[in-house]
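Researcher: Last one for today. Full complex below.
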Amino acid sequence: MDAVQDEVFRGFVAARGHALIRTAYLLTGDQHLAEDLVQTALERAVQHWSSIRDVGAAEQYVRRTMYRENISLWRRRRLTELPTQVVPEPRRERPAADPTDRSTDRMVLRDALMRLGRRQRTVLVLRFFEDLTEQQTADLLGISVGTVKSQSHKALHAMRSACRDLAPATGGER
Amino acid sequence: MSIDVEDQVRTALHEIADDARPAPLMQRLEAGRGATRPRLLRHRSVVGAVAAVVAALLVAALMSRAEHARRIDPAERLPKVITLSESGTLSPGRVLLAISLAADSENDNTPSYLLTSNETEAVLLPQTGEVQGHWTQHLSADGASFVRQGWQTQADVEIVDLRAGSVDHAGGARGHCPTLSPDGSLLVAADYATGDVVLIDRVSGTVNQIAAEGPECGYHSFAWAPDSERMVVRGRYGSGLRDLHGRLLRELPGRLANGSMSWSPDGRDLLMYRSATGGFAVVSVADGTATALPAPAGDARPLGWTGDRVVWLVGGVGDQRLVTTDREGRDRQLWTRLALGTRQVDNITWSRALTGRG
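Model: Here's the assembly. Have a good evening.
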């Protein structure tokens, strides 16, 4: 990497680093793991930087690497976590609005999100945080659209089971 | 699974992401270079696989983009990520989109960056030195001009020709919210002192008063119809559809979401904010009926249209992006990410190459 490329890379990290950390944080549920994941993806990007045509392509490359690395890490370390479909102690109905509800909601949903398997969590992040279509998600992860649909359905079901305040099903499947 | 659940999950994801803290990534990378080999090299077999996957993904992405192009009909597409350049020069291609940033704390400067077709970097539009700071600014529908208005009470207007680099002051016109018609021949603006709405013919130079809203109407905004024959004028007492003579054709509920960008390319609908309900709506130009437009999660505001889809600006500082939804606020899809660092978008306008038919 020459001086100009190095400068562009630094600018890219400065401009987009936090956005990448945010996504990685959702994928891993942990600040340090998120930083590790982004670092790994950036290290790969550095090695291919001369062949990356622009900063936009670089971000796509780094994000793809993050998503796939996150799943492969899970495969290598799958014994370290035991995802479940349902949180053991679902939240109870609350009688009335409470000022602390919002932070409580966040904690419950975060807990539910972290209990998902990495693939389901990644699908959820791609579909509902990154706003990718089912087809785009499938292409990115190298899985079928049907798998994206089923993983997404199961993940949303688990999230809803974890938090009763999430609206019951009222519409058709997407 | 219901869409309501999806929206709640979407909101939750954005809120959880807000808990992530900025990290000294460059320091970590530099430390990592000296200490240990990158993890990738510890898994050389993975390298080849990733390379193959990346190649496959590139093909898949191209196919996906082609599919996306079938769903909407603008002539151009945006890159996945848009970055900013302070020093770049505008390429010869046509300007697709203008990003205007919020004023920084040191001065009232609100810089605008222009993105041309086939580029991923938006280039800073230099100040002319004549109009300082900008109250409103927008890209023309044909992408050939950029209209700016200074901060002053009796505001100067300048129309920058993006191809020739020349500046037109619209015959010395001063006015608020100067808005260029889609065909580029007319400029509508408001006189802050009198509240008069004036129409300036850029060819003949004639200035006609077409409406009077009373003094101190500093909150005007205008939205030209795609046919340049009608406009919506928002004044003190509400919004109204008017013809070129200022005749009121229809009163409309609420205020415009984003000037002329509020008009759907087919000229049938307007994006509006309704104070009465505190939400956004798609308003039919034909009969004034409003259909609620639920905002997608992520601190969203609607900016305009691409094809028959609504474009929203979502996300906070460091993670702003444009997403599109259908007219019911559903089927959210990423349009582009905005790599702005710590800076924040004030407004984004785009040409009809991205808007589509009309």
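The longest helix of chain A spans residues 3-28. The two ends of chain A are 45 Å apart (CA to CA).
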